[in-house]
Amino acid sequence: MNQTAKVVDFSLNGFFIQMDAAGQVQEGQQIRLALRFPHEKASTILKAKVVRTEKNGFGCQFLDLNPSLMDLLEKNFDIFSATLPI
Fold first, then answer.
1. Predicted confidence (pLDDT) per residue in 15-32, tens digit
2. Tens digit of pLDDT for each residue in 28-66?
3. 4 to each of 17, 18, 21, 66, how far by Cα in Å?
4. Beta partners for residue 72, in sequence order
5. What is the DSSP letter of 27?
6. What is the pLDDT of residue 86?
7. I need a surface site. Which of 33, 38, 84, 86 has the fewest CB within 10 A?
């Protein structure tokens, strides 16, 4: 599914995506999020599971974060939080 969406909430555990076609997403569904960290040339693909659905979006929890990905998230958390929506 290719939809335009905005990340409107971001934490070290997951994120909330706002989008019009949120009804097409089901709780328990796994998704991939392409995220480009500052100072990185390529995007990193993060796996997540949909844990909450709402009319205007859905919440996801990160899956399978290895220590290097967790370190990248922690180092860049303030940048992502300050620039919402993404």
1. 999 987 767 889 999 999
2. 999 998 888 888 889 989 999 999 999 889 999 999 999
3. 10, 9, 9, 28
4. none
5. T
6. 64
7. 38
Q: What are the tokens at 52? A: 């909450």
Q: Is the pLDDT of residue 1 over 60?
A: no
DSSP labels, 3-26? ---EEEEE-SSEEEEE-TTGGG--
Measure CA 38 to chain center. 16
Cα distances (Å, whole numbers) of residue 34 to 7, 58, 82:
12, 16, 19
Q: Encoding tokens for residue 69?
A: 């990905």
| Distance in angstroms (rounded) separating the CA atoms of residues 52 and 29 | 10
Q: Is the pTM of this model over 0.85?
A: no
**62 residue type, one letter:** F
Six token digits for residue 77: 């958390």
Q: How far apart are CA 51 and CA 17, in angstroms?
A: 12
